[in-house]
């Protein structure tokens, strides 16, 4: 849903709510006005919530912040219903209506803040995981491409074996593995541009990958 469409819906909701409030034969007491104001606040509350959620340019950011919209809409529906009840039912003590109104907006604000914080945390965590797994993914793609391009049967077989070693390696990089991974990247680069003895380079990369796998197990 586009933000412009969403804001249009909010305007319609506000108009309908106002018509109900002022056309219906409700007494214009202080509780009436309090109920009406909290109803308007619940509509206005959607604007920053939708801006925060829908204002992100990439889909992943929007996805992680989408639950905040449900919190906003839930608050809107409950508050509008309770506002109409507060305007129409005279038997409910005014202090109860005010306490519930304040509690509703309080829960909505806390829920929105918590949801936003959770979205940011999950997104950052996923970004870190993706960065840590980028090494294996990149090396695997490079070796697979070389396997396709290589015509020499022995080298092709060795590259396939190397690809299998990479595939079953621990995908998560760590700081302690940086030196080994740097050496592997350098060897793969030489292999890609055709520098040096191809068989020796493949064997060296295999050895380095095996060392990396051993170190990964030791670090766990």
From TrEMBL:
Keywords: Membrane, Transmembrane, Transmembrane helix. The lineage of its organism: Bacteria, Bacillati, Bacillota, Clostridia, Lachnospirales. The chain crosses the membrane at residues 7-24, 30-47, 68-89, 95-122. This is Uncharacterized protein. It comes from Blautia obeum A2-162.
